[in-house]
Protein: E3 ubiquitin-protein ligase RNF25 isoform X1
Amino acid sequence: MDALQDEVESLEAILMDDVCIKRTPKSGEVEQIETTVLPLTGEEEEQQYVCVTLQVHPTPGYPEESPTFKLLRPRGLDDARLEAIRSACNAKIRESIGFPVVFDLIEVVREHLSGSNLPSGQCVVCLYGFADGDEFTRTECFHYLHSYCLARHLNALRRNYQEEFDKLPAWLQKTADPFQALCPVCREHIGDETDSLKCAMPPSELLNAPEFKVTEELRKMQQRMSELYLQQKSRGAIIDVNAEGSAVISIETEEDIRRRRRREEAEAAKKLEGPAKEEVIKPTTSSTFAPVVQETHRIMPEPTNNNYQHNRRHYRGGRRHHHHHQHGHHHRAERDRGEQNPAAAPATAGGSTSNSANTNSKQAKAQSASSGLAR
Structure:
């Protein structure tokens, strides 16, 4: 482990902030060594088109045992180049068993990057590769695109942003975020270099590309996609653009929302108060006299504390007296009618006696109630 500590100190002295050493929390032993390797281009850092991060994990028996390593976050490198760098590192580890090898691995990776300091793979915009003479641009996140393709991408982003910005109401446009260019690969923020890329020429493969023709294979693919589209549409999984385009989206401010809620609450309150008012204002249609008495008694002024008990006693007594007076008057009237028309007396005692008695009883009760109320 002394050899590893010496090697780590040498790496920190040479690479300084470009190397990251991770140690275990308890023992403080070196657990991981990580650094980003760039090609040698002198002082022209803008010409460094490729890079890769080397991560080395020393084993407990290092350097007598071979360490493990990983190649992370490659930029401008395709799978073939990564595999070549990985094979060169494995060969260097086998040659250096028993000796510190971390610094040697860094040098192996740097040599490969310097020998092929040209982005490989495809441009994510046009899907063509990078050929000699093509103008390409490296973003801040180390992704490579043809300068011509990047300019088209930025113009499309700005056009879409302006369309969405124009749809916003005036009060939202004031607080909207400004336009920000994004990398088409990782969506990270990049510099807007549209002006400097206007004069970029298209890539050579795009200029020399054959004219597009519909092949038999493409027709079969279109047929399969059409069947899939109809199947999804029948299940309701496809959005109808025409139907959605006619839909209107209403944007309300906070003040509009408060006004709408107050208006809804007022309408709900009116609906609740309407039936109650109709019940109070609607006159009674009952033919009985009792509701009238109750209504008249309800609107009469309440008696004072001084004469409440007196009025109560007088009312009850008057009611009883009036009831007996009417009852006696009723019997005298029947007796007089019987004396004047003796022949009708049996008939009256028969079928019509009960009806007359009921009618007279109702009249007597009504008169009694009216008399008591008047008193």
